[in-house]
Protein backbone atom coordinates (compact mmCIF):
# COMPACT_ATOMS: atom_id res chain seq x y z
CA UNK A 1 0.00 0.00 0.00
CA UNK A 2 2.92 2.31 0.61
CA UNK A 3 3.76 2.16 -3.10
CA UNK A 4 0.69 4.35 -3.66
CA UNK A 5 2.78 7.20 -2.29
CA UNK A 6 5.52 6.66 -4.85
CA UNK A 7 4.04 7.25 -8.29
CA UNK A 8 7.33 7.03 -10.18
CA UNK A 9 8.18 3.65 -8.64
CA UNK A 10 4.71 2.29 -9.38
CA UNK A 11 4.98 3.48 -13.00
CA UNK A 12 8.43 1.91 -13.30
CA UNK A 13 7.11 -1.44 -12.12
CA UNK A 14 4.25 -1.24 -14.62
CA UNK A 15 6.67 -0.43 -17.43
CA UNK A 16 8.95 -3.32 -16.50
CA UNK A 17 6.01 -5.72 -16.44
CA UNK A 18 4.82 -4.52 -19.85
CA UNK A 19 8.22 -5.02 -21.42
CA UNK A 20 9.41 -8.17 -19.71
CA UNK A 21 6.53 -10.53 -18.93
CA UNK A 22 6.05 -13.55 -21.17
CA UNK A 23 3.75 -16.34 -20.06
CA UNK A 24 4.57 -18.55 -23.06
CA UNK A 25 7.24 -20.50 -21.22
CA UNK A 26 7.82 -24.20 -20.67
CA UNK A 27 7.24 -24.11 -16.91
CA UNK A 28 4.98 -26.18 -14.65
CA UNK A 29 3.09 -23.77 -12.43
CA UNK A 30 0.73 -24.21 -9.49
CA UNK A 31 -2.73 -23.24 -10.68
CA UNK A 32 -3.71 -22.09 -7.18
CA UNK A 33 -0.56 -20.07 -6.47
CA UNK A 34 -0.47 -18.47 -9.93
CA UNK A 35 -4.04 -17.33 -9.47
CA UNK A 36 -3.81 -15.82 -6.00
CA UNK A 37 -0.38 -14.24 -6.50
CA UNK A 38 -0.06 -13.36 -10.20
CA UNK A 39 -3.64 -12.93 -11.41
CA UNK A 40 -4.83 -11.46 -8.11
CA UNK A 41 -1.81 -9.18 -7.78
CA UNK A 42 -2.16 -7.84 -11.32
CA UNK A 43 -5.90 -7.22 -10.96
CA UNK A 44 -5.41 -5.38 -7.68
CA UNK A 45 -2.59 -3.26 -9.07
CA UNK A 46 -4.68 -2.52 -12.15
CA UNK A 47 -7.60 -1.27 -10.05
CA UNK A 48 -5.34 0.79 -7.75
CA UNK A 49 -3.20 2.29 -10.52
CA UNK A 50 -5.28 5.44 -11.01
CA UNK A 51 -5.35 6.08 -7.27
CA UNK A 52 -1.57 5.66 -7.29
CA UNK A 53 -1.32 8.55 -9.75
CA UNK A 54 -0.41 6.47 -12.78
CA UNK A 55 -1.70 7.81 -16.09
CA UNK A 56 -4.24 5.20 -17.20
CA UNK A 57 -5.34 4.53 -20.75
CA UNK A 58 -8.70 5.51 -22.19
CA UNK A 59 -11.31 2.97 -21.15
CA UNK A 60 -9.79 2.14 -17.76
CA UNK A 61 -10.74 0.20 -15.65
CA UNK A 62 -12.17 -1.88 -18.50
CA UNK A 63 -8.77 -1.92 -20.20
CA UNK A 64 -5.13 -1.46 -19.29
CA UNK A 65 -1.76 -3.24 -19.51
CA UNK A 66 -2.04 -4.87 -16.08
CA UNK A 67 -5.54 -6.13 -16.85
CA UNK A 68 -4.33 -7.61 -20.13
CA UNK A 69 -1.49 -9.36 -18.31
CA UNK A 70 -3.89 -10.73 -15.70
CA UNK A 71 -6.12 -12.07 -18.48
CA UNK A 72 -3.17 -13.65 -20.28
CA UNK A 73 -1.99 -15.35 -17.09
CA UNK A 74 -5.49 -16.61 -16.28
CA UNK A 75 -5.93 -18.05 -19.78
CA UNK A 76 -2.83 -20.13 -19.19
CA UNK A 77 -4.64 -21.73 -16.25
CA UNK A 78 -7.87 -22.60 -18.09
CA UNK A 79 -6.63 -25.97 -19.48
CA UNK A 80 -6.41 -27.21 -15.89
CA UNK A 81 -10.21 -26.93 -15.58
CA UNK A 82 -10.87 -29.24 -18.55
CA UNK A 83 -11.77 -32.27 -16.45
CA UNK A 84 -14.95 -34.41 -16.29
CA UNK A 85 -15.84 -32.81 -12.95
CA UNK A 86 -14.84 -29.22 -13.72
CA UNK A 87 -12.43 -29.35 -10.80
CA UNK A 88 -8.93 -28.25 -11.88
CA UNK A 89 -5.64 -30.09 -11.83
CA UNK A 90 -3.19 -28.67 -9.32
CA UNK A 91 -0.46 -27.94 -11.87
CA UNK A 92 -0.41 -26.78 -15.47
CA UNK A 93 2.39 -26.20 -17.96
CA UNK A 94 2.17 -22.60 -19.14
CA UNK A 95 3.21 -23.53 -22.68
CA UNK A 96 1.77 -27.01 -23.25
CA UNK A 97 -1.20 -27.21 -20.85
CA UNK A 98 -1.70 -30.12 -18.47
CA UNK A 99 1.12 -32.67 -18.66
CA UNK A 100 -0.01 -36.21 -19.65
CA UNK A 101 1.32 -37.68 -16.40
CA UNK A 102 -0.10 -34.98 -14.12
CA UNK A 103 -1.61 -36.28 -10.89
CA UNK A 104 -5.38 -35.85 -10.74
CA UNK A 105 -5.27 -35.32 -6.95
CA UNK A 106 -5.80 -31.69 -5.91
CA UNK A 107 -6.37 -30.19 -2.48
CA UNK A 108 -9.77 -28.69 -1.77
CA UNK A 109 -8.41 -25.15 -1.51
CA UNK A 110 -6.68 -25.62 -4.87
CA UNK A 111 -10.11 -26.22 -6.41
CA UNK A 112 -12.24 -23.65 -4.61
CA UNK A 113 -10.02 -20.56 -4.58
CA UNK A 114 -10.73 -18.85 -7.92
CA UNK A 115 -14.07 -17.05 -7.79
CA UNK A 116 -12.72 -13.71 -6.48
CA UNK A 117 -10.06 -13.26 -9.17
CA UNK A 118 -11.85 -15.04 -12.01
CA UNK A 119 -15.19 -13.28 -11.49
CA UNK A 120 -13.41 -9.93 -11.32
CA UNK A 121 -11.62 -10.75 -14.56
CA UNK A 122 -14.85 -11.78 -16.29
CA UNK A 123 -16.63 -8.60 -15.23
CA UNK A 124 -13.77 -6.34 -16.35
CA UNK A 125 -13.10 -8.07 -19.68
CA UNK A 126 -16.62 -9.16 -20.59
CA UNK A 127 -15.50 -12.77 -21.07
CA UNK A 128 -17.64 -15.05 -18.84
CA UNK A 129 -15.38 -18.10 -19.19
CA UNK A 130 -13.33 -17.30 -16.09
CA UNK A 131 -16.27 -16.90 -13.72
CA UNK A 132 -17.99 -19.90 -15.27
CA UNK A 133 -15.11 -22.33 -14.61
CA UNK A 134 -14.64 -20.99 -11.07
CA UNK A 135 -18.34 -21.47 -10.30
CA UNK A 136 -18.37 -24.97 -11.78
CA UNK A 137 -15.44 -25.97 -9.55
CA UNK A 138 -17.16 -24.58 -6.45
CA UNK A 139 -20.36 -26.44 -7.24
CA UNK A 140 -18.46 -29.68 -7.85
CA UNK A 141 -17.00 -29.54 -4.35
CA UNK A 142 -20.43 -28.77 -2.93
CA UNK A 143 -21.95 -31.70 -4.81
CA UNK A 144 -19.33 -34.10 -3.44
CA UNK A 145 -19.53 -33.13 0.25
CA UNK A 146 -20.21 -35.99 2.66
CA UNK A 147 -23.62 -36.94 4.00
CA UNK A 148 -22.83 -35.04 7.21
CA UNK A 149 -21.92 -31.91 5.23
CA UNK A 150 -18.10 -31.96 5.34
CA UNK A 151 -15.41 -31.93 2.66
CA UNK A 152 -12.09 -33.70 2.82
CA UNK A 153 -8.57 -32.50 2.21
CA UNK A 154 -7.67 -33.85 -1.24
CA UNK A 155 -9.87 -35.15 -4.08
CA UNK A 156 -9.35 -36.85 -7.45
CA UNK A 157 -10.55 -34.30 -10.02
CA UNK A 158 -11.28 -37.03 -12.60
CA UNK A 159 -13.30 -39.46 -10.48
CA UNK A 160 -14.43 -37.08 -7.67
CA UNK A 161 -13.24 -39.64 -5.11
CA UNK A 162 -11.83 -38.24 -1.87
CA UNK A 163 -8.18 -39.24 -1.43
CA UNK A 164 -7.59 -37.57 1.95
CA UNK A 165 -10.74 -37.68 4.03
CA UNK A 166 -9.70 -35.42 6.90
CA UNK A 167 -12.10 -32.50 7.34
CA UNK A 168 -11.22 -29.25 9.06
CA UNK A 169 -10.80 -25.53 8.49
CA UNK A 170 -7.03 -25.48 8.04
CA UNK A 171 -4.38 -26.27 5.44
CA UNK A 172 -5.63 -27.70 2.17
CA UNK A 173 -9.21 -26.54 2.80
CA UNK A 174 -9.02 -23.03 4.27
CA UNK A 175 -9.37 -20.67 1.31
CA UNK A 176 -12.27 -22.69 -0.15
CA UNK A 177 -14.43 -21.54 2.76
CA UNK A 178 -12.89 -18.07 2.58
CA UNK A 179 -13.82 -17.68 -1.09
CA UNK A 180 -17.41 -18.81 -0.59
CA UNK A 181 -17.87 -15.88 1.80
CA UNK A 182 -15.78 -13.35 -0.11
CA UNK A 183 -17.28 -14.43 -3.44
CA UNK A 184 -20.76 -13.98 -1.97
CA UNK A 185 -19.89 -10.47 -0.77
CA UNK A 186 -18.09 -9.47 -3.96
CA UNK A 187 -20.88 -10.69 -6.24
CA UNK A 188 -23.83 -10.25 -3.83
CA UNK A 189 -24.45 -13.94 -4.44
CA UNK A 190 -26.89 -15.64 -2.06
CA UNK A 191 -26.13 -19.13 -3.39
CA UNK A 192 -22.46 -18.94 -2.41
CA UNK A 193 -23.33 -17.61 1.03
CA UNK A 194 -25.91 -20.34 1.60
CA UNK A 195 -23.25 -22.93 0.75
CA UNK A 196 -20.93 -21.52 3.36
CA UNK A 197 -23.62 -21.28 6.02
CA UNK A 198 -24.46 -24.95 5.52
CA UNK A 199 -20.78 -25.85 5.84
CA UNK A 200 -20.57 -23.67 8.93
CA UNK A 201 -23.33 -25.70 10.61
CA UNK A 202 -21.50 -28.95 9.91
CA UNK A 203 -18.18 -27.51 11.07
CA UNK A 204 -19.75 -26.41 14.36
CA UNK A 205 -21.46 -29.76 14.82
CA UNK A 206 -18.49 -32.03 14.15
CA UNK A 207 -15.18 -30.15 14.43
CA UNK A 208 -15.74 -27.53 17.13
CA UNK A 209 -14.76 -28.34 20.72
CA UNK A 210 -14.68 -25.54 23.32
CA UNK A 211 -13.96 -22.84 20.71
CA UNK A 212 -11.21 -24.97 19.13
CA UNK A 213 -11.59 -26.62 15.73
CA UNK A 214 -10.16 -30.12 15.28
CA UNK A 215 -9.65 -32.40 12.28
CA UNK A 216 -12.25 -35.13 11.86
CA UNK A 217 -13.08 -37.94 9.45
CA UNK A 218 -15.35 -36.39 6.83
CA UNK A 219 -17.90 -39.23 6.73
CA UNK A 220 -18.02 -40.21 10.41
CA UNK A 221 -17.13 -37.02 12.26
CA UNK A 222 -14.63 -38.91 14.45
CA UNK A 223 -11.59 -36.93 15.59
CA UNK A 224 -8.50 -37.76 13.55
CA UNK A 225 -6.13 -35.06 14.76
CA UNK A 226 -6.63 -32.89 17.88
CA UNK A 227 -4.37 -30.07 16.71
CA UNK A 228 -4.59 -26.38 15.89
CA UNK A 229 -2.74 -25.28 12.76
CA UNK A 230 -1.51 -21.72 12.39
CA UNK A 231 -3.26 -21.52 9.01
CA UNK A 232 -6.60 -21.91 10.82
CA UNK A 233 -6.19 -18.50 12.45
CA UNK A 234 -7.97 -16.87 9.50
CA UNK A 235 -11.27 -18.33 10.76
CA UNK A 236 -12.19 -15.62 13.32
CA UNK A 237 -11.78 -13.00 10.60
CA UNK A 238 -14.05 -14.99 8.32
CA UNK A 239 -16.61 -15.34 11.12
CA UNK A 240 -16.59 -11.58 11.55
CA UNK A 241 -17.50 -11.15 7.87
CA UNK A 242 -20.73 -13.07 8.40
CA UNK A 243 -21.51 -11.19 11.62
CA UNK A 244 -20.65 -14.00 14.05
CA UNK A 245 -18.46 -11.70 16.12
CA UNK A 246 -18.94 -13.28 19.57
CA UNK A 247 -17.80 -16.72 18.43
CA UNK A 248 -15.01 -15.09 16.44
CA UNK A 249 -13.63 -13.30 19.50
CA UNK A 250 -13.71 -16.43 21.65
CA UNK A 251 -11.81 -18.44 19.06
CA UNK A 252 -9.41 -15.57 18.45
CA UNK A 253 -8.56 -15.34 22.15
CA UNK A 254 -7.73 -19.07 22.18
CA UNK A 255 -5.31 -18.56 19.34
CA UNK A 256 -3.89 -15.44 20.97
CA UNK A 257 -2.96 -17.45 24.09
CA UNK A 258 -0.84 -19.70 21.86
CA UNK A 259 0.85 -16.64 20.39
CA UNK A 260 1.70 -15.31 23.84
CA UNK A 261 3.04 -18.71 24.88
CA UNK A 262 5.63 -18.81 22.08
CA UNK A 263 5.91 -15.30 20.59
CA UNK A 264 4.31 -16.60 17.40
CA UNK A 265 2.05 -19.38 16.15
CA UNK A 266 3.69 -22.79 15.63
CA UNK A 267 2.60 -24.58 12.47
CA UNK A 268 0.92 -27.29 14.58
CA UNK A 269 -0.18 -27.01 18.22
CA UNK A 270 -1.37 -30.06 20.18
CA UNK A 271 -4.49 -28.83 21.98
CA UNK A 272 -4.76 -31.52 24.72
CA UNK A 273 -1.04 -31.28 25.54
CA UNK A 274 -0.88 -27.50 25.19
CA UNK A 275 2.41 -27.62 23.30
CA UNK A 276 3.96 -27.80 19.84
CA UNK A 277 3.86 -30.89 17.64
CA UNK A 278 7.16 -32.59 16.87
CA UNK A 279 8.75 -31.29 13.63
CA UNK A 280 6.03 -28.66 13.28
CA UNK A 281 7.46 -26.06 15.70
CA UNK A 282 8.28 -23.45 13.07
CA UNK A 283 6.76 -20.00 12.54
CA UNK A 284 7.25 -18.62 9.00
CA UNK A 285 5.75 -15.22 9.95
CA UNK A 286 2.31 -16.19 8.73
CA UNK A 287 -0.39 -13.49 8.56
CA UNK A 288 -3.58 -15.33 9.52
CA UNK A 289 -3.92 -14.30 13.17
CA UNK A 290 -3.08 -10.68 12.37
CA UNK A 291 -5.53 -10.80 9.46
CA UNK A 292 -8.28 -11.87 11.88
CA UNK A 293 -7.28 -9.13 14.32
CA UNK A 294 -7.62 -6.53 11.55
CA UNK A 295 -11.12 -7.69 10.57
CA UNK A 296 -12.29 -8.02 14.16
CA UNK A 297 -10.93 -4.63 15.18
CA UNK A 298 -12.93 -2.98 12.40
CA UNK A 299 -16.03 -4.78 13.74
CA UNK A 300 -15.53 -4.29 17.49
CA UNK A 301 -12.83 -1.69 18.23
CA UNK A 302 -11.75 -4.03 21.04
CA UNK A 303 -8.32 -2.83 22.28
CA UNK A 304 -7.27 -6.44 22.88
CA UNK A 305 -6.85 -6.72 19.14
CA UNK A 306 -4.43 -3.80 19.11
CA UNK A 307 -2.49 -5.54 21.87
CA UNK A 308 -2.04 -8.54 19.56
CA UNK A 309 -0.80 -6.18 16.86
CA UNK A 310 1.67 -4.63 19.27
CA UNK A 311 2.83 -8.06 20.44
CA UNK A 312 3.27 -9.16 16.84
CA UNK A 313 5.38 -6.15 15.91
CA UNK A 314 7.57 -6.51 19.01
CA UNK A 315 7.93 -10.26 18.61
CA UNK A 316 8.82 -10.14 14.92
CA UNK A 317 11.31 -7.33 15.52
CA UNK A 318 12.91 -9.12 18.45
CA UNK A 319 13.19 -12.71 17.26
CA UNK A 320 13.05 -12.52 13.47
CA UNK A 321 14.81 -9.39 12.24
CA UNK A 322 18.13 -9.91 10.43
CA UNK A 323 20.37 -7.67 8.35
CA UNK A 324 18.58 -8.26 5.06
CA UNK A 325 14.98 -8.80 6.16
CA UNK A 326 12.91 -10.93 8.52
CA UNK A 327 13.71 -14.62 8.74
CA UNK A 328 11.41 -17.59 9.25
CA UNK A 329 11.57 -18.89 12.81
CA UNK A 330 12.67 -22.50 12.49
CA UNK A 331 11.74 -23.46 16.06
CA UNK A 332 9.59 -21.34 18.37
CA UNK A 333 10.85 -23.21 21.43
CA UNK A 334 14.30 -21.63 21.20
CA UNK A 335 13.70 -19.05 18.41
CA UNK A 336 16.30 -20.50 16.05
CA UNK A 337 16.01 -18.98 12.56
CA UNK A 338 15.94 -20.42 9.07
CA UNK A 339 17.69 -18.82 6.08
CA UNK A 340 14.51 -17.75 4.25
CA UNK A 341 11.75 -15.14 4.22
CA UNK A 342 8.39 -16.12 2.76
CA UNK A 343 6.77 -13.77 0.25
CA UNK A 344 3.51 -13.70 2.22
CA UNK A 345 5.29 -11.88 5.04
CA UNK A 346 5.45 -8.71 2.93
CA UNK A 347 2.27 -9.33 0.92
CA UNK A 348 0.07 -10.12 3.91
CA UNK A 349 1.57 -10.01 7.41
CA UNK A 350 3.02 -6.50 7.18
CA UNK A 351 0.04 -5.21 5.22
CA UNK A 352 -2.50 -6.38 7.79
CA UNK A 353 -0.40 -4.93 10.61
CA UNK A 354 -0.23 -1.63 8.74
CA UNK A 355 -4.00 -1.55 8.24
CA UNK A 356 -4.68 -2.54 11.85
CA UNK A 357 -2.88 0.61 13.05
CA UNK A 358 -4.00 2.97 10.27
CA UNK A 359 -7.71 3.68 10.88
CA UNK A 360 -7.81 6.46 8.28
CA UNK A 361 -6.46 4.37 5.41
CA UNK A 362 -8.51 4.60 2.21
CA UNK A 363 -9.06 0.82 2.42
CA UNK A 364 -11.36 1.48 5.42
CA UNK A 365 -13.59 3.89 3.48
CA UNK A 366 -17.21 3.58 4.65
CA UNK A 367 -18.67 4.76 1.37
CA UNK A 368 -19.02 8.41 2.39
CA UNK A 369 -16.63 9.43 -0.39
CA UNK A 370 -15.98 7.90 -3.77
CA UNK A 371 -14.61 8.61 -7.21
CA UNK A 372 -16.56 8.71 -10.45
CA UNK A 373 -14.81 7.84 -13.70
CA UNK A 374 -16.13 7.77 -17.24
CA UNK A 375 -15.87 4.45 -19.06
CA UNK A 376 -17.03 3.45 -22.55
CA UNK A 377 -20.16 2.19 -20.79
CA UNK A 378 -21.01 5.34 -18.83
CA UNK A 379 -20.23 6.70 -15.39
CA UNK A 380 -18.58 4.35 -12.95
CA UNK A 381 -18.25 4.59 -9.16
CA UNK A 382 -14.90 3.48 -7.70
CA UNK A 383 -13.01 3.60 -4.39
CA UNK A 384 -16.16 3.69 -2.28
CA UNK A 385 -14.77 1.08 0.12
CA UNK A 386 -15.88 -2.44 0.81
CA UNK A 387 -12.66 -3.83 -0.65
CA UNK A 388 -12.50 -7.61 -0.80
CA UNK A 389 -9.05 -9.04 -0.11
CA UNK A 390 -8.08 -12.14 -2.00
CA UNK A 391 -6.35 -14.84 0.02
CA UNK A 392 -2.96 -13.27 -0.72
CA UNK A 393 -4.23 -9.91 0.67
CA UNK A 394 -4.57 -8.18 -2.70
CA UNK A 395 -7.56 -5.78 -2.40
CA UNK A 396 -10.25 -5.86 -5.09
CA UNK A 397 -12.67 -2.93 -5.45
CA UNK A 398 -16.14 -4.51 -5.74
CA UNK A 399 -17.55 -1.41 -7.41
CA UNK A 400 -15.25 -2.00 -10.37
CA UNK A 401 -17.20 -5.13 -11.27
CA UNK A 402 -20.08 -2.91 -12.37
CA UNK A 403 -18.05 -0.61 -14.61
CA UNK A 404 -17.67 -2.62 -17.79
CA UNK A 405 -21.07 -3.95 -18.72
CA UNK A 406 -22.00 -3.86 -22.37
CA UNK A 407 -25.55 -2.59 -22.59
CA UNK A 408 -28.04 -2.45 -25.42
CA UNK A 409 -28.21 0.70 -27.49
CA UNK A 410 -31.90 1.07 -26.62
CA UNK A 411 -31.02 1.33 -22.93
CA UNK A 412 -28.58 4.15 -23.67
CA UNK A 413 -31.34 6.04 -25.50
CA UNK A 414 -33.75 5.63 -22.58
CA UNK A 415 -31.16 6.87 -20.11
CA UNK A 416 -30.36 9.87 -22.31
CA UNK A 417 -34.05 10.78 -22.36
CA UNK A 418 -34.28 10.42 -18.60
CA UNK A 419 -31.22 12.62 -18.07
CA UNK A 420 -32.68 15.29 -20.35
CA UNK A 421 -36.05 15.15 -18.57
CA UNK A 422 -34.63 15.38 -15.07
CA UNK A 423 -32.16 18.10 -15.96
CA UNK A 424 -35.20 20.38 -16.28
CA UNK A 425 -35.99 19.74 -12.64
CA UNK A 426 -32.78 20.83 -10.98
CA UNK A 427 -34.40 20.95 -7.59
CA UNK A 428 -35.03 17.20 -7.63
CA UNK A 429 -32.46 14.49 -7.11
CA UNK A 430 -32.74 11.11 -8.71
CA UNK A 431 -30.85 7.91 -9.27
CA UNK A 432 -30.63 5.93 -12.47
CA UNK A 433 -30.70 2.22 -11.80
CA UNK A 434 -28.59 0.17 -14.14
CA UNK A 435 -30.07 -2.96 -15.64
CA UNK A 436 -28.09 -6.09 -14.80
CA UNK A 437 -26.90 -8.27 -17.63
CA UNK A 438 -26.42 -11.37 -15.52
CA UNK A 439 -29.36 -13.19 -17.03
CA UNK A 440 -30.46 -15.94 -14.71
CA UNK A 441 -28.18 -14.80 -11.86
CA UNK A 442 -30.72 -12.66 -10.01
CA UNK A 443 -28.56 -12.66 -6.93
CA UNK A 444 -25.74 -10.67 -8.51
CA UNK A 445 -26.99 -7.11 -8.09
CA UNK A 446 -25.34 -3.74 -8.05
CA UNK A 447 -24.25 -2.91 -4.50
CA UNK A 448 -24.39 0.74 -5.37
CA UNK A 449 -25.81 2.67 -8.30
CA UNK A 450 -24.06 5.78 -9.51
CA UNK A 451 -25.90 9.04 -9.08
CA UNK A 452 -26.33 10.99 -12.28
CA UNK A 453 -25.87 14.36 -10.63
CA UNK A 454 -23.20 16.45 -12.29
CA UNK A 455 -20.22 17.50 -10.30
CA UNK A 456 -16.54 16.99 -9.60
CA UNK A 457 -14.84 13.64 -9.61
CA UNK A 458 -14.90 13.38 -5.81
CA UNK A 459 -18.39 13.07 -4.43
CA UNK A 460 -20.09 12.52 -1.12
CA UNK A 461 -22.86 10.02 -0.76
CA UNK A 462 -24.96 8.67 2.07
CA UNK A 463 -24.04 5.13 2.90
CA UNK A 464 -26.60 2.77 1.44
CA UNK A 465 -27.93 -0.05 3.57
CA UNK A 466 -27.44 -3.56 2.21
CA UNK A 467 -27.87 -6.82 4.04
CA UNK A 468 -24.62 -8.67 4.59
CA UNK A 469 -24.91 -11.81 2.63
CA UNK A 470 -25.34 -11.27 5.69
CA UNK A 471 -16.46 -36.86 18.09
CA UNK A 472 -15.68 -40.46 19.31
CA UNK A 473 -11.90 -40.54 18.95
CA UNK A 474 -9.86 -42.79 16.74
CA UNK A 475 -6.15 -43.43 17.03
CA UNK A 476 -3.85 -40.97 15.32
CA UNK A 477 -2.88 -43.09 12.37
CA UNK A 478 -5.09 -41.42 9.81
CA UNK A 479 -3.49 -39.69 6.89
CA UNK A 480 -3.66 -35.90 6.78
CA UNK A 481 -2.62 -34.29 3.53
CA UNK A 482 -1.38 -30.71 3.91
CA UNK A 483 -0.32 -28.67 0.89
CA UNK A 484 0.53 -31.78 -1.09
CA UNK A 485 2.23 -33.70 1.73
CA UNK A 486 0.71 -36.68 3.50
CA UNK A 487 1.65 -36.87 7.18
CA UNK A 488 1.59 -40.17 9.04
CA UNK A 489 1.84 -40.82 12.78
CA UNK A 490 5.60 -41.35 12.47
CA UNK A 491 6.23 -38.11 10.53
Automatic annotation (TrEMBL):
- Region: Disordered; residue ranges are 435-472
Q: Which InterPro entries match?
A: 6hp_glycosidase-like_sf, EDEM1/2/3, Glyco_hydro_47, Seven-hairpin_glycosidases
What are the EC numbers?
Answer: 3.2.1.-
Where does it primarily localize? endoplasmic reticulum
Q: Which domain of life is it from?
A: Eukaryota
Per the UniProt record, which residue ranges are transmembrane? none
Name listed for the protein in its UniProt record: alpha-1,2-Mannosidase
One GO biological-process annotation of the entry reads:
response to unfolded protein
A cellular component term from Gene Ontology for this protein is: membrane
Location of the protein in the cell: Endoplasmic reticulum
In what ranges is there compositional bias, type Basic and acidic residues? 435-459
Q: What keywords would UniProt list here?
A: Calcium, Endoplasmic reticulum, Glycoprotein, Glycosidase, Hydrolase, Metal-binding, Unfolded protein response
Keyword field contains Coiled coil: no
- Name the residues that bind Ca(2+): 391
Please provide an example of a Pfam family that matches this protein in its UniProt record.
Glyco_hydro_47
What is the organism field in this record? Fulmarus glacialis
Family, according to the entry, reads as follows: Belongs to the glycosyl hydrolase 47 family.
Q: Which residues form a coiled coil?
A: none
Its function? Involved in the endoplasmic reticulum-associated degradation (ERAD) pathway that targets misfolded glycoproteins for degradation in an N-glycan-dependent manner. May initiate ERAD by promoting the first mannose trimming step of ERAD substrates, from Man9GlcNAc2 to Man8GlcNAc2. Seems to recognize and bind to exposed hydrophobic regions in target proteins.
Amino acid sequence: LQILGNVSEFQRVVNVLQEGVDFDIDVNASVFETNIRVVGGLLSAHLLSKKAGVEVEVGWPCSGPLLRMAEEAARKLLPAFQTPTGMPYGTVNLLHGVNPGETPVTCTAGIGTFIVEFATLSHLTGDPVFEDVARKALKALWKNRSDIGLVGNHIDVITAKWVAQDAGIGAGVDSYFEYLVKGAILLQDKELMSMFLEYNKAIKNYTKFDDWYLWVQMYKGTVSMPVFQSLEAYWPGLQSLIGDVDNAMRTFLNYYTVWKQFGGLPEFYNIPQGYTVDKREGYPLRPELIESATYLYRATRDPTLLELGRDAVESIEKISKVDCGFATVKDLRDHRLDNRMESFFLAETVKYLYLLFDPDNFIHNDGSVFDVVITPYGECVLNAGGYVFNTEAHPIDPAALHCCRKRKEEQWEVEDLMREFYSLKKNKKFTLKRVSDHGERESAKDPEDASSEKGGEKRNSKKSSHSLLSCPSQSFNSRLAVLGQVFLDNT
